[in-house]
Amino acid sequence: MGVAFRELIFDLAAIVEDAHHDQNVLDRVMRLGERSLGALGLTLGELADGDAPGSRIVAATGASSWALGRPIGADVVKASLQPSPAPYPIELDILEDLAIAQLKALGIGSIQVYPIYIHGRAALILAAFFAEGAALDADQTAVMKLVAACIGYLYRRETPEHAARGIDERELFMAVTSHELRTPVTVIKGYAETLRDHWDRLTEPQRIESARVIGQRATELARMVDRLLEASTASEAISSRIAPFDLLESLRKAAADLPGYLRKRLHMKLPPQLPPALGYRSGLASVVVELVTNAHKYSPGSGPIVLSADSDGRTVFFRVADRGIGIPADRAPNTFERFWQGEAGDDRRYGGAGLGLFLVRKTIERQNGWVSLRPRDGGGTVAEVRLPRGDIGVGEA
């Protein structure tokens, strides 16, 4: 096929230039690649480190859109990482039966893959979907490599510094955890020692206030420990509990269980019904608590915090929106960034090391979903959680 490479390069350059201000940059690159290749669809898979589970589809277009958020099996990863200087085909029969049926129902009979290496390791897999028996010509091969190079550039630019330095995620998790746990423990210890050493000199209101602070911090500590235990649960155990569930019912229950000061600020804008979500129902409550607490923390005053939900053809999602301090556009997470990075640094105006948001990310990604953070029109921040739909059947996109 003939490809207008000059126009393609100009279009890719324009997309890259807008990357800091466009939340849909990856989607634009993928759709441009799909059109230029003449493909039925494209997917981008993000690979977990080493042999760890958690590889998943993070972007999908066209006829392959149904795959967004779905896990990538170990056999598919292995087949997609063969040493090759150019894209190459993989056999459909290594996929799960449902995926094979889905692809065939959509007229897809050929998959071409190309791994993308970031900081020396295979981090992504770009896959193009074609009709039965299709093979790439020289122009299509060049297009796929060019699109992969563009995605790799964007990903490298947004990859966290700790990843570039090769810091293991477990080490980062332990460092953040120890920092975050230290705060409530220190406060509890300080007030307890004050009561013990100065009981006779304290007034009754001072004693009551000290006891109140100890109780409040102990509650925070207990909630934090619960989240840590949830995040440390083996991935296999989480996977075994993933099933379709009613997101609206779970959101209403989580909202009802919020502390009173949070319920007063929460405005719920939920539709009458939604398709089922595919995920781990029990883990949702801690996610809602963390996002609403975070919105309260960064939006001082009594302004409303809005909880809404909706769905599209591929996912079911909910949003927590506030009118707080907001987040600069150049720091807003997009497809490449992770939610828990948003408040990095030592010069922040608010306490905490971001453990809660780190655990939100871990909890949702282990259910093949994802979390994003972006500025809200008119000021403030929107946190969005997406999970795969639990009712996607063969032939649906």
From TrEMBL:
EC number: 2.7.13.3
Segments forming domain Histidine kinase: 176-391
Subcellular location: Cell membrane
PROSITE patterns reported in the protein's UniProt record: HIS_KIN
Alphabetical list of Pfam families matching this protein: HATPase_c, HisKA
GO MF, any single term: phosphorelay sensor kinase activity
UniProt-listed InterPro entries: HATPase_C_sf, HATPase_dom, His_kinase_dom, HisK_dim/P_dom, HisK_dim/P_sf, Sensor_HK_Regulatory, Sig_transdc_His_kin-like_C
One GO cellular component term: plasma membrane
Broad EC category: transferase
Major localization listed first in the record, in broad terms: membrane
Keyword annotations: Kinase, Phosphoprotein, Transferase, Two-component regulatory system
Gene3D superfamilies, A to Z: 1.10.287.130, Histidine kinase-like ATPase, C-terminal domain
Catalytic activity, reaction form: ATP + protein L-histidine = ADP + protein N-phospho-L-histidine
Phosphoprotein recorded as keyword: yes
Highest taxon, organism lineage: Bacteria
Listed PANTHER family: HISTIDINE KINASE 1 (PTHR43711:SF1), TWO-COMPONENT HISTIDINE KINASE (PTHR43711)
Name the UniProt record assigns to this protein: histidine kinase
Species classification: Bacteria, Bacillati, Actinomycetota, Actinomycetes, Micromonosporales
